[in-house]
Write a structure and sequence with these properties.
Helix content: 10-25%
Shape: globular
Structural class: mainly beta
Oligomer: single chain
Largest sheet: 6 strands, antiparallel
CATH architecture: Roll
Number of strands: 6
Strand content: 35-45%
Strand order of the largest sheet: 1-2-4-5-6-3
Number of domains: 1
Length: 144
């Protein structure tokens, strides 16, 4: 049975925004979802889902990729912390008005001693919704 994003990230219930892992390799993951259309999406405010929340979709794809890589190496999944956002571009104002499924891609640009840089893209029907870069610091286990 294929893994789901919810098995790889700490988010639970409706806060796990990604629904399916479409494909992945050592550098990239592609996920899909329709959660932006849900009236129960926990990021909605006043019945709307702002495109700024596409950043969370991208960050969750990054976490999914990290989880997939850890599982492949038979390692425990280490928590990561979003440290910075760079070059964020929003091409739409709202996500809830988009009828088609979202495709969320995250590509690893740098992995160095627990510091990660990923680019992400959120698309709907091949139309760009948002893109940018995220910097993540992974907390490694400390032995005593």
């Amino acid at each position: 049975m294929p893994l789901t994003p919810g098995q790889l990230i700490p988010h639970a219930g409706s806060m796990c925004l990604l629904e399916q892992i479409v494909n992945w390799d050592q550098q990239q993951v592609v996920c899909s979802t329709g959660s932006h259309r849900s009236l129960k999406n926990p990021l909605r405010s006043n019945g709307q889902l702002s495109a700024i929340h596409a950043i969370e979709y991208g960050a969750q794809a990054v976490a999914v990729h990290g989880g997939l890589l850890a599982q492949e190496r038979n390692e425990a999944i280490q928590p990561g912390y979003l440290a910075a956002l760079r070059h964020i571009r929003l091409h739409q104002s709202r996500l809830d008005e988009i009828e088609s499924a979202l495709t969320v891609e995250a590509t690893q640009l740098l992995c160095d001693a627990g510091n990660l840089i990923y680019s992400f893209t959120v698309k709907a029907a091949d139309q760009a919704i948002a893109d940018g870069r995220v910097v993540v610091i992974v907390q490694s286990e400390v032995s005593t």
